[in-house]
Amino acid sequence: MIALKDIDKFFKSRFQKTFILKGIDLNINEGDFITIMGPSGAGKSTLLNVIGMLDQANAGEYYFLDQPVHKFNEKKRGEMHKNLIGFVFQAYHLIDELTVYENIEMPLLYKGVKGSERKSLVAEMLDRFNIVAKKDLFPYQLSGGQQQVVGVARAIIGKPKLLLADEPTGNLHSKQGEMIMDLFTKLNEEGVTILQVTHSEKNAEYGKRIVTIEDGAIIEDRTT
């Protein structure tokens, strides 16, 4: 599904390059549930952003469903990101001025999905995540766990091929965190490919593989 070949990401100053990612080779198969681990500043979130097409590598090759992402312009990458990838963030990134219903609906508006279909898809998500009663509430009226559930619903409503999660339980207490991880497990069983960044050994064990990064390079890739 995804092949990264010799990916570099660096910042240039006048006299030197500072590498964030160096020589990354990584293959992700459809249906994988992979955890990326490593110390702060190791390059985990940068790698997630490159895979999620929010950022571009400086060198190397990136293939997504056999398509050469590294050759695409920003517009083409944006289209692929919108249609194929869902993102869940540590800080939820819900829009404060929009209700739960409107936050979940947002990706469908970007995709130009018709009104009746949007209505039915949002209703399905509200039902699935047991948040029908919260559909008219605003993010500040929800607990952290509830906000993250809305974030997950928003990320998967467009039926993405790949779900990326950056410290998805970082702001949650342990019970809320378990709820989100159980949700990911269920989504993965339904065929969604998941790539998560976490510091939590416990959360890492939910995945099928753990990829460890240090100083921008992969130092270990093991099955759990």
Relevant terms:
single chain, about 220 residues, alpha/beta, Rossmann fold, six-stranded mixed β-sheet, four-stranded antiparallel β-sheet
Model description:
Helices cover about 35% and strands about 30% of the residues. By secondary structure, it is α/β, with parallel strands linked by helices. It has a single domain (about 1-224), classed as Rossmann fold (3-Layer(aba) Sandwich), CATH 3.40.50. The strands form 2 sheets. The chain has a 6-stranded mixed sheet with strand order 6-7-8-3-9-10, sandwiched between helices. Helix 3 crosses helix 4 (about 115-130) and helix 5 (about 145-155) runs parallel beside helix 6 (about 175-190).
What would you say the CATH architecture is?
Answer: 3-Layer(aba) Sandwich
CATH topology, which one?
Rossmann fold
Q: Assign the CATH class.
A: Alpha Beta
Large-scale geometry: globular
Distance between the termini: 20 Å
Question: Helix- and strand-based class?
Answer: alpha/beta
Number of DSSP helices?
7
Q: Please compute the radius of gyration using only Cα atoms.
A: 18 Å
How many E strands? 10
Number of domains: 1
Major sheet: order of its strands? 6-7-8-3-9-10
Whole-number average pLDDT?
A: 93
Largest sheet: 6 strands, mixed
The ordered string of helix (H) and strand (E) elements is EEEHEEHEHHHEHEHEE
Instruction: Work out the strand percent.
Output: 25-35%
CATH homology superfamily name? P-loop containing nucleotide triphosphate hydrolases
> Helix amount, in percent?
25-40%
Give start-end ranges of low-pLDDT stretches: none
